[in-house]
Write a structure and sequence with these properties.
This is Phospholipid-translocating ATPase. InterPro entries: Peptidase_aspartic_dom_sf. With 105 residues, this protein is α/β, with parallel strands linked by helices. It has a single domain (2-83), classed as Cathepsin D, subunit A, domain 1 (Beta Barrel), CATH 2.40.70.10. Helices cover 15% and strands 37% of the residues. It is built from 3 helices and 7 strands, in the order E-E-H-E-E-E-E-H-H-E. The strands form 2 sheets. Strands 2, 3, 4, 5 and 7 form a 5-stranded mixed β-sheet that branches. It has a two-stranded parallel ribbon with strand order 1-6. The longest helix has 8 residues, at 14-21.
Length: 105
Amino acid sequence: MELDTGSAVSVMAIDEYKEMFGKHPKMKPTKVCLRTYSNELIQALGRLPLKLDVSKQVKTLPLLILNKDGNPILGRDWLSVLRLDWRSIGHISKANDSWNLLPSM
């Protein structure tokens, strides 16, 4: 996941959603429409509540699913809730074992 302080919300492309979660869990409907920095409008396909376990912080946070290519983005919605140890982050090139993304049931 890429950290993007310019993004108000956390998002994932539909292809990655299918690869990571298959058909389950199902997305919940949403009417959210996003506007990119280039003024493009993107209608979210759905919302997935995820139970996150990040450095012993267990939270259920929303992830918007988009019909758009790109890396998953960790936006300000998650940043405002999660307390991250910035000194340990630096650069992460692959998934960190301390981050467990679990579908919320």
